[in-house]
Write a structure and sequence with these properties.
With about 160 residues, this protein is mainly α. Helices cover about 70% and strands about 0% of the residues. The chain has one domain (about 1-155). The chain has helices at about 1-15, 20-30, 50-65, 75-95, 100-125, 135-155. Helix 1 packs antiparallel against helix 6 and helix 2 packs antiparallel against helix 3 (about 50-65).
């Protein structure tokens, strides 16, 4: 059961890095049969419409993240989105792992905060010196978010 809680926390971290990637990979996990969410409160994530919507949002976010006018992920609005979607995704992984939805939700929300601040610190440290351009730094973060998210949802 401990691994389910770790996965719930980590999907929240993914959400902290890219807020729409975590719900998109959870939807893909349900679509591919890796996650069983049927009959649960988070069962809506298995519906094709949510798969399409969250995938499009995730692609849009991956593009928009590179733009200079996008607000910091640690500002209240973007942070709340990461907390809410981290909770939903953490709850979904808990349900898929036969755990308690609310415990997974809390861990996912905590992970969302951790991921937001860790991602922000990483971007500032890696590109703050201006020795490394921001684009490769952001692309590496994208790779971690998408690859890590798919890895997590495939563990079930």
């Amino acid at each position: 059961m401990m691994s389910v809680w770790i996965l719930a926390l980590l999907i929240g971290v993914i959400c902290g890095l890219r807020s729409m990637t975590a719900p998109a990979v959870v939807c893909w996990g349900a679509h591919l049969g890796w996650l069983s969410l049927a009959g649960s409160t988070v069962g809506f994530l298995a519906r094709p419409v949510f798969l399409v919507v969250f995938t499009l949002f995730a692609i849009g976010e991956l593009i928009a993240d590179k733009l200079p006018f996008i607000p910091r992920r640690t500002m209240i609005g973007p942070l709340v989105v990461r907390i809410v979607f981290g909770a939903i995704c953490g709850g979904a992984l808990a349900v898929a792992g036969h755990g308690v939805l609310s415990a997974g939700g809390v861990l996912g929300a905590v992970g969302g905060v951790l991921g937001a601040y860790a991602g922000y610190a990483y971007r500032r440290a890696a590109s703050g010196s201006r020795r490394v351009p921001d684009l490769p730094v952001a692309l590496l973060e994208d790779l971690v978010a998408v690859g890590g998210g798919l890895f997590l949802v495939s563990r079930f």
